[in-house]
Design brief:
single chain, 139 residues, alpha+beta, 5-stranded mixed beta sheet, two-stranded antiparallel sheet, 3 helices, 7 strands, 27% strand
Length: 139
């Protein structure tokens, strides 16, 4: 099975981390976008200024959740024909002003309780912590 990785566009920016997790968990770009469009639940992410959304993915007796963590970001406008506006921080904004930086995605077996800490597998938490400590970016 060949996996077609998503490309960055005006609405989404995809990190290497989420692409690796998409391959590991067998998640497609369309599946991740469906979780973003119609989430069953929305929580604050573990990383600063992030949001995690969840959608149930039950099949028969098998209960699971698909989680996606993202961050809304501003980005520089590269269009010549369109006159961009400048915000106070100096970034040139597109007309909508932001896009989603897709950080991570995972499948959680079972049912998580609302309001508790987001159920993030230990390997993903360790990898995100290692990236944050080293000062590297996810892109």
């Amino acid at each position: 099975m060949f996996i077609k990785f998503p490309k960055d566009d005006k609405n989404f920016s995809w990190t290497r981390h989420i692409k690796n997790k998409m391959m590991f968990y067998g998640l497609s770009e369309a599946r991740i976008k469906s979780v973003l469009n119609l989430p069953k639940r929305k929580e604050e992410g573990i990383a600063p200024n992030t949001t995690a959304v969840m959608k149930r993915n039950d099949r028969g007796k098998k209960k699971e959740e698909i989680w996606v963590m993202y961050q809304k970001t501003n980005y520089k406008q590269q269009t010549i024909n369109q006159k961009p506006t400048q915000n106070p921080s100096g970034y040139w904004l597109n007309p909508s002003g932001s896009r989603a930086l897709m950080i991570s995605a995972w499948r959680y077996p079972g049912v998580s309780k609302k309001g508790n800490a987001i159920p993030i597998p230990d390997d993903i938490r360790d990898e995100l912590d290692g990236i944050a400590k080293s000062g590297n970016t996810l892109i």
